Amino acid sequence: MSLLAGDDGLARPAWAATDPLMRDYYDREWGMPVRDETGLFERLSLEAFQSGLSWSTILRKRPAFREAFHGFEADAVARFDEDDTARLLADARIVRNRRKIAATIQNARATVALREAEGLASLIWSFQPAATPTPTTFAEVPTQSAESIALSKELKRRGFAHVGPTTMHALMEAVGIIDTHLLGSHRRGSSGIWAADGSRA
């Protein structure tokens, strides 16, 4: 499976070709650079919640996640206590998984602690590779890389949880650290970070 042409004539992968919400996410957000702490903490958190679920499920719940987690402001989430955990577990609008909720609170505290060093954004972006994949089909899109494995290990060393190599690879795709848009997609090379041929722009 490769690309489908939409009614606007633009080529997109199948997952972004029909559902209006996913299509808008693909066209406007996925793969565009995110370099601020709050934006990266949100996406790291949502990628962890997505594990085992479809991204469309998480995307539909994102407004509720943002409300429940106070806009993913790390300082606010780092102060969450057992009452907040109980509140989140009772909130049917989000994914009610105790381990993932606990990991998000733990990761908020780790994010705050990182400010005394290089900070979350600088740490994550330091794992940007020298080149990015150039897939023509979904079968050629990797789910892990040497960089995502290394990022996972480093985040765990810094006190983060639910940050496995596959989850970190998905994060790197989502925030522009790598470009896994299929060759021929109208979004390929659109981030300003990568050229269409996989080299740095």
Portion of residues in helices? 40-55%
For this structure, the CATH topology is Endonuclease III, domain 1
The largest pleated sheet is described as: 2 strands, antiparallel
The CATH homologous superfamily is termed Hypothetical protein, domain 2
Looking at the structure, what is the overall shape? globular
By secondary-structure content and strand pairing, the structural class works out as: mainly alpha
**If you compute it from the alpha carbons, what radius of gyration comes out, rounded to the nearest whole angstrom?**
17 Å
Task: Describe it.
- It comes from Agrococcus baldri.
- GO terms for molecular function: DNA-3-methyladenine glycosylase activity; metal ion binding.
- This protein is 47% helix and 3% strand.
- By secondary structure, the protein is mostly helical.
- It has one domain: Hypothetical protein, domain 2 (Endonuclease III, domain 1, Orthogonal Bundle), CATH 1.10.340.30.
- The two termini are 27 Å apart.
Task: Describe how the helices and strands are arranged.
Elements: E1 3-5, E2 11-13, H1 20-28, H2 37-50, H3 55-68, H4 74-78, H5 82-89, H6 98-114, H7 120-125, H8 146-157, H9 165-174
Antiparallel strand pairs: 1-2
Helix pairs in contact: 2-3, 2-6, 2-9, 8-9
Features:
Endonuclease III, domain 1; two-stranded antiparallel sheet; 3% strand; single chain; 9 helices; 201 residues; mainly alpha
